[in-house]
């Protein structure tokens, strides 16, 4: 058991060094969070030995947990300091939310698939991630009761950024989301300032579909 956990610590260190830091992610909070969150607990038992590999993995219900580097890049792009309340759309396995929860004050995460929602909410309780709040609903509509958010991260791809999410972002806040077609998207970073909205393209990516009122039909 002790050797077992040592193995995971080593795999995590290697993941952070070889896949993340070496590709230019420098934010110490992101590197620290990713060297601590036990990614292997967010995948099914059969995939535990692949959990720290340089690729996405299936999480059931036709969905995937992103490649570690993409998680790191998206998290870094939010320019987090630590006091933030962050909204995530697409809870999935819960891994991205767990990484965020180690950096910020509170994470609000929405999942539209009921089986994944239940499974992941249970996991957060078991692993004592008490600053993550979950909700079962269509995340393209945001979470108006808890808005505004200091940062928003959408972990599924749509044809455009849902307007409710832009409305629910604080002035001075950042939103990151894959935008494009059903197979390929560009990772867009939107910054809301008092002078208006600035959008930056962070590069190509591949995500599952964001399905909902302001996303794909199905
Ligand atoms: N952040 C997740 C990635 C999961 S994949 C992780 O770390 O594992 C994307 C997830 O988005 C899927 O679970 C999918 O069911 C969910 N999703 C798609 N459209 C959604 C919507 N409109 N609202 C909430 N979740 C949605």
Mean pLDDT: 96
Quickly give the CATH architecture of the domain at 55-67 and 76-205. 3-Layer(aba) Sandwich
- Dominant shape: globular
Number of H- or I-type helical stretches: 6
**Integer-rounded radius of gyration:** 16 Å
Residue runs with pLDDT of under 50 for 5 or more positions: none
Strand content: 25-35%
CATH topology-level fold name of the domain at 55-67 and 76-205: Rossmann fold
Oligomer: single chain
Give helix and strand order, one letter per element, not per position. Answer: HHEEHEHEHEEHEEE
**How many angstroms does the end-to-end distance come to?**
43 Å
CATH-defined superfamily of the domain at 55-67 and 76-205:
Vaccinia Virus protein VP39
Largest sheet entry: 7 strands, mixed
Instruction: Please give the order of strands in the largest beta sheet.
Output: 5-4-3-6-7-8-9
Percent helix, as a range, is: 25-40%
The number of E-state strands comes to: 9
By CATH reckoning, the class of the domain at 55-67 and 76-205 would read Alpha Beta
User: Helices and strands: which structural class?
Assistant: alpha/beta
Features:
globular; Rossmann fold; seven-stranded mixed beta sheet; two-stranded antiparallel sheet; 218 residues; 6 helices; binds S-adenosyl-L-homocysteine; alpha/beta
Tell me what you see in this structure:
With 218 residues, this protein is α/β, with parallel strands linked by helices. Helix content is 29%, strand content 28%. The chain has a seven-stranded mixed beta sheet. The protein is globular, with a radius of gyration of 16 Å. The chain binds S-adenosyl-L-homocysteine (SAH). The site of S-adenosyl-L-homocysteine (SAH) has 26 residues, from strand 2, helix 4 and strand 4.
